[in-house]
Amino acid sequence: MSDDEKYAEKAIGWRVLIYIVLGHLLAGFIWLLFYLGSHASH
């Protein structure tokens, strides 16, 4: 395996990790909006 292939695998791994983290942050933010919205009228 060449260095370029190793670098590509590492880059893909980091990209997947970043997408997962950002996806969870976005989902948490949306959940927070719904949570605050549902409790705002009380």
UniProtKB/TrEMBL annotation:
Keywords, comma-separated and alphabetical: Membrane, Transmembrane, Transmembrane helix
InterPro entries with a match to the protein in the record: DUF6126 (IPR046129)
Segments traversing the membrane: 12-36
The keyword Membrane appears for this protein: yes
Family matches, as Pfam families: DUF6126
Entry keyword Membrane: yes
Official protein name in the record: Small hydrophobic protein
